[in-house]
Prior knowledge:
The chain is mainly α. The chain has helices spanning 2-32, 37-41, 55-63, 67-98, 104-114, 123-133, 140-143, 150-161, 165-173, 178-189, 191-207, 210-215, 224-227, 240-266.
Amino acid sequence: MKQKNFFKYLLYGILIVYAVLTLYPFIWAFTASFKPLKEIVSGDLSFIPKEFTTDAYAYIFGRSSLFSQWFINSVIISVIGTTVNIFLNTMAGYALARLSFPGRQRIFYGLLAMMMVPSQVLLIPNYLILVNLGLLDSFGALIIPAAINIGNIFMMRQFFVSFPKDIEEAASIDGLGRFQTFFKIVMPLAMPSIATQAVFTFMGFWNEFMKPMLYISTPSRYTLTLGLQTFQAKDGGVRWDHTMAASIITIIPIIALYLIFNKYFLKGIRMDGEK
């Protein structure tokens, strides 16, 4: 019994240390956003500002006229990209799990093989395609190449493989067609998997830096991640006070999205009808 309690407390201790190490940078970044630049670059790691100021936020929402536009751009790209991903990935996963058509298994194995290809390999081919389509320096350049996610297709396919056919058969008996069954019955029951997909897809669009840097050149069309690098001091250094304040504002939508969909992560669905 004592040995069991020892390992339990040891595990708690390790988790507490891990939590502190994980949360410390976020807490420090939050407090640093209320510090003047000279205090941040001094190397002081204390949480409490010696000279409390909101000048960084005043600059971002006032004199930095493009920050609000960058925020809106990121919201538009992330929301549209996530919505498109949810529908295409879910429908593709359902088709691979339920529909019978020639080459279904070959397509599935091909998708599995494509999961092993690093995304960086596709940056230049995508760039050339976007140039030929005239989509460079537009939101479409960030949304269309990422309209589907093979990993999420695989996740949804595995979910639908274990989804009971009895429910779909009952819906068919009640007169629902394939599309009605999918949108009215299947998708609501798949909400936990869809919510997980939505959060990670939104985070992917929201935090993307490499693609906006390659595909977007007009400052008014920058995303937040790309716009943050423009906070430079006159001497060429980084304005860490502005950067910290902007970073705090940047993570707010991610936290809000997680809080909204958190219940779906914790909600377990037993496919036999029990909860």
